[in-house]
Every structure is written in C-alpha cells, then in structure tokens.
C-alpha cells in the first residue's frame, strides 16, 4: 500500500514527563522552536496567561491553568518525524499520564536541579521501568542554584535503581552555568547568554585547550568529574539503556533554551523508533506488517462546536490511510476512518496517512475505548492498558431525580472513556455508583462534565477508603458487613476490595486469613 503524500521519514515517538513545575511546558515550547511543527493533535501547552496553545474545551482548565487533555505534537527534526505525546502536568491526572505512556517508545524525564527527585518523578520513573520504556533524563534549571551534579547522579542510582550515564556534564556549578562538556568527544559546548534568553541560545564549540583557557577551574573540575564517571562505568551503554537498566543524562536550561537541540539530537541517535508490538495471544506485529493501532485516549466534549467523541490511536504497524475501513477487535465490527483528524485548538484538519509511531484522532468514535485495537488484514488484539489502583472514592448521586436516564448514560460514558472508574455493588444499587480515582481532581472533572454534557447536576460524597485490592467472589462474601471495608465491582467484572487504610486491611486479613487479595496490575 502506498499513498502519494506518505511521509516515510523515520519516526521518534516520545513524551516529556516530570513533577509539576520542573519545566515541561517551557521545554515543549523550546523544542517547538528548534523544530518545524507539522501538526498539533489537540496538544495543550502553557499555563493560564501564557502564550502557547491553550485548549479551551473546558472552563476549569482555563481557570486552573492546567492541561487536562492530552494528545500529540508532530514535528520535523533532522530528517525524522518526531511525535511528542503530551502528558497532563498536574499530578492528579497521573492516571491519564500512565495511559499516554503506553503510546510512546521513549520518555524524556525532566528533573529540577534544585529539587532533585520529587514524588511524581519517582512514580513516573517506576511506570517507565514497569513498561520497559527507555528514559532519557534531563537535569533542568542548571542556570539556578541547586544540587551538585554528582549528588544528583547518586540520587538517580540509589532511589530509582537506574544507572545514570551522562552524555553531557555541566561546566560551572548550578547557578553558574557556563556550558557543558560533551562526553562523546571531550569538547566544550559553551553557552553564550543573550538578553532575555527568549530566542535560540547561541552555542559555541571549543576544544579542551580553548575551554581551559576560557573557563579555568570550572573546566578542570568538569574534566575531572567526567573521568570519575568513566572510571565508574557511567558511560552510555545502548543495550543497558534500551533494556531499561541505565538512563542517559543531559544537563540544560529549558528557559534559556540551552541543551534543547541536544535532547532532540539524542532522541534521534540513542532513542528507539517504533518496534514490534505483542498481541494478547503472544503473536507479534512488526511495523511493516498490515495496519494496526491501539486507542490510548478517548475524549469527549472538547468544545461546544464539536460535541463528539475523539479517540486517539497510536499506529503500531502498517500504513494508515484516511478512509480505510478497519476492524474493531473488541466487537469484530467494521470501523470507517473517513473522519480521521488532527486537532489544533479549535481547528481540525484531516490526517491523510500515518505510519507506526504516529497518533491519529478518530472522530465519531463512540464504540472505541482506551485499550481497544483496530486493524486491517489478519486479526490482532493488543493487551488492555493497565488500570491503576484508585486511592480516592466517592459516591455519586443524581440531584434531579427526573434525569435518571441521562445520569446513567453519563456515568457509563465517563467510565468507558476512562475518565473515572465506576464501581457498583448490589447493596448500594445502580443509582449510587462509587467513583474511584487516582487523583481527586478527576471527581471535579466528572462533576463538571456531567453537568455540561449530560445536563445532570450530581452530588458527590467522599468515602473514607484509600486502598484497593483485587479479590474474588469468596472475598466479597467474607467482607460483607465488615466496617471499614467493602467489595465493589468494576464494569469489566473485576471485584475490588476497598479499605480505609493499610492498618484496616491488615486487621481484616487477620480475621480472614483465607481472604484472597492481590495488588492491581502494575499498580504503583
Ligand atoms: P511545568 O509545570 O513542568 O510545565 O513547568 P513550567 O514549564 O511551567 O515551568 C515552571 C517554572 O519554572 C516557570 O516559572 C518557568 O519559567 C521556570 N523554568 C522552567 N525551566 C527553567 C529553567 O531552565 N531555568 C529557570 N531558571 N527556570 C525555569
């Protein structure tokens, strides 16, 4: 299959992940400055009041200055097509971030040089390790006083268990950023400060002798530390990186735009492109096999003008051509792709073709859910995306009793989209489902969307549970009537035992030693 406008350049598909405030939005803008943007699929960057593409599908987003939705930004760089899959920055939306990570081949982890490894940094590193996603670490904000470079390397090795293998090493301590030593050739990439730092930062290369003459002690120290690192086996090892045992490290400043081009260069040289994808039955689709893709995100009500459902799918194999009719693996039914689009703010443009690694937005995709597979040719079904252990629970009830049909429909749709997990039990009945979330802000999103999209005001009452484990039918019987614990069912049939806290769980286990409890898959 070949289409006339098929852009066959190699792909790199990645996400930038970080604890909020580490500089993700700043870096995304800086990356766009170095690259030529091809298209933007509903990508959301920038905070309230800042320049940048700010999605407007929800008032809440604007009011809080955070991005709730996530899609992808596509650009050209160095003969490649780069897909930057956007992750929501707010820690409450970690569930969505986890899903997005199932669509990328590598991740760039931003670490604030002053703050080191923050809670969200740790969680995200762990998810990448579990998923086998290679991570390039970028120590950001080196222009500001912070921790020592060697200390940061120790933190990564000890707290995350990944061997840091710096590709560049800072010259001048944090707060006195002169540039970096390029550990590949031992040369100096000098940073020249420009007024405001708004444009591309000028970078000048010098050989070691010139660097010593120019930077003196700061250069000697960088060289010495570079040698210490080599003696400690901290040189880039492609095999260890791809196997998720080591992480190449770069130093820079997203705000001053220093080291940003280098991140892109390394993505092309060390990060992997799209590889084979393994299906539920263990069979493998290679990128050049027939078309297949999986849905990693579903989004509704993006704005008033397009009140429909958009499913974002990552192409795993073959060539996607708009108009092709594919098969939806879960239902076995045909799915027409004549409305495949990318979305830029309010604007939508058609996608004509896409290759493995690319992200396509499928409009009117009411049947598609996160984790679903679509394919052409021989049948294939990719494994579902792991759901994460909810830590916040609330009951939802319909305030206007006359609208119970809309209430049911809305709750069902938000459950299918993965906006929230919906749990039920015979005791509670259908009118009072329990909503379960990874972050409490998911509740506010559900409440706002129930009102805006289904015209149903809902009341939420927080439950004092904070822990969920998978159990079985026997577990449900054992826990009936126990205070501080309850068994609820997800729509996929999984039974979750929920507990107020780990002490309550331990006490219940002492009473019922036979109780079957297991952590949620890939829960962190
Ligand atoms: P996000 O929450 O991760 O998207 O972080 P932002 O990109 O919004 O950055 C948070 C704050 O850190 C903003 O005030 C940025 O201007 C600032 N910032 C980002 N990168 C740098 C940097 O390299 N150096 C300095 N000094 N500040 C930075």
Automatic annotation (TrEMBL):
Task: Tell me the residue numbers annotated for binding GTP.
Answer: 86-90
User: Domain Tr-type G: where?
Assistant: 9-277
Q: Which Pfam families match?
A: EF-G_D2, GTP_EFTU, RF3_C
- Tell me where it resides: Cytoplasm
Q: Which InterPro entries match?
A: EF-G-like_DII, EFG_III/V, G_TR_CS, P-loop_NTPase, PrfC, RF3_C, RF3_dom_3_sf, RF3_GTP-bd
Query: Does Protein biosynthesis appear among the keywords?
Result: yes
Q: What are the record keywords, sorted? A: Cytoplasm, GTP-binding, Nucleotide-binding, Protein biosynthesis
Recorded hits in HAMAP family, A to Z, give:
Rel_fac_3
What does it do?
Answer: Increases the formation of ribosomal termination complexes and stimulates activities of RF-1 and RF-2. It binds guanine nucleotides and has strong preference for UGA stop codons. It may interact directly with the ribosome. The stimulation of RF-1 and RF-2 is significantly reduced by GTP and GDP, but not by GMP.
NCBIfam families the record matches: prfC, PRK00741.1, small_GTP
Family label: Belongs to the TRAFAC class translation factor GTPase superfamily. Classic translation factor GTPase family. PrfC subfamily.
Its protein name is Peptide chain release factor 3
Q: What is the scientific name of the source organism?
A: Nocardioides lentus
Its lineage opens with:
Bacteria, Bacillati, Actinomycetota, Actinomycetes, Propionibacteriales
Gene of this entry: prfC
């Amino acid at each position: 299959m070949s289409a006339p406008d098929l852009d066959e350049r190699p792909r790199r598909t990645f996400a930038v992940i970080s604890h909020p405030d580490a500089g993700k939005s700043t870096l995304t803008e800086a990356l766009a400055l170095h690259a030529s943007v091809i298209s933007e699929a509903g990508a959301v960057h920038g905070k309230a009041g800042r320049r940048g593409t700010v999605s407007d599908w929800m008032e809440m987003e604007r009011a809080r200055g955070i991005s709730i939705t996530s899609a992808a930004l596509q650009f050209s760089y160095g003969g490649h097509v780069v897909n930057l899959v956007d992750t929501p920055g707010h820690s409450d939306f970690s569930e969505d971030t986890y899903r997005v990570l199932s669509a990328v081949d590598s991740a760039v982890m931003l670490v604030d040089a002053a703050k080191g490894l923050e809670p969200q940094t740790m969680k995200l590193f762990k998810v990448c390790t579990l998923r086998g996603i290679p991570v390039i670490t970028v120590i950001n904000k080196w222009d500001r006083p912070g921790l020592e470079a060697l200390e940061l390397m120790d933190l990564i090795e000890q707290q995350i268990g990944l061997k840091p293998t710096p590709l560049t090493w800072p010259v001048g301590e944090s707060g006195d950023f002169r540039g970096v030593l390029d550990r590949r050739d031992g040369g100096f990439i000098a940073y020249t400060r420009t007024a405001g730092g708004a444009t591309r930062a000028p970078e000048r290369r010098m050989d070691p002798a010139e660097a010593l003459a120019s930077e003196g002690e700061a250069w000697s120290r960088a060289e010495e530390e570079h040698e210490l690192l080599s003696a400690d086996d901290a040189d880039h090892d492609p095999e260890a990186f791809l196997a998720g045992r080591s992480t190449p490290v770069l130093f820079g400043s997203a705000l001053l735009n220093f080291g940003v081009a280098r991140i892109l260069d390394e993505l092309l040289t060390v990060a992997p492109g799209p590889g084979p994808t393994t299906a539920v039955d263990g069979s493998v689709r290679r990128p050049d096999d027939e078309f297949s893709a999986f849905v990693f995100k579903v989004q509704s009500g993006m704005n008033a003008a397009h009140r429909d459902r958009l499913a974002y799918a990552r192409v795993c194999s073959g060539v996607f051509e708009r108009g092709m009719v594919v098969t939806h693996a879960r239902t076995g039914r045909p799915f027409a792709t004549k409305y495949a689009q990318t979305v830029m703010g309010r604007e939508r443009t058609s996608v004509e073709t896409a290759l493995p690694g690319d992200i396509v937005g499928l409009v009117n995709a009411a049947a598609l859910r996160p984790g679903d597979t679509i394919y052409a040719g021989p049948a294939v079904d990719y494994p579902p995306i792991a759901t994460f252990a909810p830590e916040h629970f609330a009951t939802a009830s319909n305030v206007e009793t006359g609208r119970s049909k809309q209430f049911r429909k809305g709750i069902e749709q938000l459950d299918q989209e993965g906006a929230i997990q919906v749990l039920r039990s015979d005791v509670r009945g259908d009118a009072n489902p329990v909503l379960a979330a990874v972050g409490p802000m998911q509740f506010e999103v559900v409440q706002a969307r129930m009102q805006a999209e289904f015209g149903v005001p809902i009341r939420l009452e927080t439950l004092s549970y904070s822990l969920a484990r998978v159990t079985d039918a026997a577990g449900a019987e054992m826990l009936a009537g126990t205070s501080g614990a309850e068994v609820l069912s997800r729509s996929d049939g999984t039974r979750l035992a929920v507990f107020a806290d780990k002490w309550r769980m331990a006490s219940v286990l002492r009473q019922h030693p036979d109780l079957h409890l297991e952590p949620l898959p890939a829960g962190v």
